Amino acid sequence: MLAYIVQITAYSAEFVALFMAVFYLLTFIENKDEIDSLEEPADYPSVAIVIPAYNEEENIALTIASAANLDYPSEKLKILVMDDGSEDKTLEAAEAEAEKHPAKDIRVIPNPHGGKAKTMNSAIKIIDSEIMVTLDADSCVSPDALKNMIPYFSKSDRVAAVVAAMKIRDPKTFLQKIQSAEYLFCFYIRKMNSFANGLLVTPGPFSAYKRSIFDEVGGFDEENITEDGEIALRIQKHQYSIEYCHNAEVFTSAPKTIKALKNQRVRWNRGTIRNFVKYRKFFANPVYGDFGLFIFPSTVVLLSVAFGLFLVSAANLMVIAAKKFEYGTLFHVPPLSFDNFFRFDRFFIQPTAMQIISLVIFGLSLVSLYFIRKYSPKDFKNMTLFYVPYLLVYYPLFVLGFWAITVFYELTHRKLAWHK
Amino acid sequence: MDKTKRQFSLFKFAAAFAISFTIFIAGFAFSERLSRSRLEDLQNDVLALQSEWNSLEMLTLIDKTSSVSCEMYEEQILNFTNETDVFGQKLESVANRLPTDNPQVVNMKVSYWLMEIRDFFTLKQIETKCGKEYTTILYFFDRACVDCVYQGEVLRQIKQEYPEIMIYSFDVSNKDISIIKILSQIYNIKTTPTLIIGDRKIEKETYRQELNSILGIESKPLIDALKPESKTPEE
Question: What ipTM was reported for this prediction?
């Protein structure tokens, strides 16, 4: 009976996955001419770059330098370094760096420690620019990013925010390279989601908001561990749209070790759970269009089904392994010889429907990869090979593993870590 | 146009659904078709096996008038056993994909068991004629018996490591098939799994270590360090 339920669930999940792959491909085909055709605005709006920093003495100088080097009319650009009561020399480092760029309007403002969201809320109160851009203190932005992002605001007056393409800064370890591949894959999904107006997050590293939007929807949620996800869902709730700018690059530091990655992802997951529960009324709600009917539900359904199947099959594998150990067959590897290899009979290749459809989904993913080139030709060449382990090993094992830890923490009510 | 109204791409949803649904159905159809074509292949294999068996039977006929050497007998019987074995594996892989009561599969299973029985008794004949001894295992299992899967795997591994050991397996869940009925009565099968090794009858799960000591063989796992501790379920 259980096997029967698992089978049906697996096939349904496969259908959803296939539907998603096809839906995104159709979205791509539908919008493929729009991708590179945005006109430069005649008049650039005033922009304030807000850099919230907490104990970032090592990175802050580079971050400020990258913000100061942004290609944007100087008189329209303000840079605010919001120190969040750092205990190290962040403040001194920021002031020293600010003096190196006398042509730019850089202000370093000390604040009592209150968390990232609170710091950004105080920045919202100070600034009078039309656009507010957040820049994480551990990230660097490419010089043309802002100029490429601004035109998206003139697409429609409902555009509340524009997000940048996140990349991994200087990936060195294998884990970081795998994450680069993951982020590249995100380009495609995010771009497609933005076409359907369904972005689920305005990432902290580099996102531009219309300043006036905060008056309507409110500031950042100070009690939230993933405030960048919460504000995005709140913007969606108010029926505004979020655009994705694929040629604005921001380079963010990636965790080097599995433990650090686990901490980061578990924090994101726990924040996501809270945010999704908070905005559960999006689920299958036609008021929210494609976002409510497809993007939000498919994200929730696919994640939970994949996770459930992962748990069931992990438990199943464990039972089988225990049995095999009992019978003494667990560590048996059939004798491998050239003879056996060449005698292999084609007859035994009999894929089930499940395997055939999985193959089609895999093929569609590869087609999508080909399309990603359009958004990121430079990276694609170096990264191609890294997709294979990403797709086959990293994603199922790590991501679902991190979700398992997340659920374990949630069930044991482990205290939420406030800072990374 | 009301700007707060969300876009709802009904056409795109319908198109995506239609395409996904088509791919889904095509996947099932393709897999089904493949199973069918494999079944047809197997049907041909049955015929080939039958003619193989006929030539073996011819050998016994010739033996009545002019003597046939033991080597020739042995060569023929080993050849037949190998082919039956491969057929059994193929049949199993196809049967796993299809419903258990598929008439074609059931028919082929019956042919397979008949083949095995012929093989087994011819082997016994050769044993008396030529004074040779073969290690034979008759394995009776049931589809409803969970542990039979693991028991079968133990035997498959033994066959992989020691191809000279002859293993014949019979699914006793097909009670209304006469060959199974006869065998169950002859060997008095009450439970599954049941192993008959030579004259010895074992009516319980038999782990690799115990089988090793009964057959006088050793495990040949590639990862020797992780070999499970030797233990017998009897204590």
Answer: 0.77
